[in-house]
Amino acid sequence: MKPAAVLAIDGGGSKMDAVVLGADGGLLGSARVPPVGSDGRDPDYLERLEAAVNAVFDAVGLDPSSGPVARVGVFCVAGADLSADERRILKWLRTRGWTDDTLLRNDTFAVLRAGTDRTWGVGVVCGFGTNCAAVAPDGRTFRLPALGWIAGDWGGGSDLGEKAVWHTMRAHDGRGKRTALATAVPAHFGLGGPRQVMEALYSGQIGVQRVATLAPVVFRVAAEGDPVARSLVERQADEVAGMAGAAIKKLRMSKLDVDVVLGGGIFRNGYRPFFERIEDGVRSIAPAANVSVLTVPPVVGAALLGLDRLDAPSRTKERVRRALTHDALAAGRRSGR
Prior knowledge:
This protein has 337 residues and is of the alpha/beta class.
């Protein structure tokens, strides 16, 4: 069997999608590995990445033991943040020998490329945490370290959840403003009140991952008019706009009609004032900017980066967009069956 054209991986903290494409952009096979709960700095994460690759090779009927099975491998993974991370992960990838050419990127670049037909623009991810990456028309790049508070980051489900609990406790004991979060947060966890939430967190009954699930609660309470919840939503919007604005200024794109792509679970809400505030913030830096929420799987972006590498024609890329749907990935489909 001739080598496939592209092996593309999108690996976030919640799942990994792997796809194999033919030279014409046809989907030969796909696989999805369940949540990993870590990133590329964790050896377990790389094991899950290998499991995803093996699963998609099995779906297609490819045997990597005989040599490279794809011309280009694009790995857009969480944890590829610092140069040291990239060197370590890239070295690990090359020892596997899966592809002739290997391209490693942070998963934010997959979100960016998936959300625009251009090869440049700005991508902002806001899920468990936050990140931003951008590419200028001339190929220059910008990327935040995305290492949490030590890198100046704030936002995502983790920070929104922690702040929701913080305000809940202060409202409960009188140190803070009254807020509907004091009722909504305990109810979300099926507990009787704020003190029970505190004790569950202290004892480890509620872990960090579950705290992040409070983000939709914050948006719901904000939409109901609660000032405290709205302040959190507004801060999150300002952080998103601030990241995108910094990237635009760094790459001198303020006068361009730059595409700003928003991806991640935080953007899956219907609270329109949140998006209006982001749009206003971005357009205060780049008046002609186009702000959109990603609706296709991020692995589409990893696949397109591979086809960009191969100088594939636009019709091939269009076929990829049609084939790589959420339903197709969830089914783990293989073409030709």
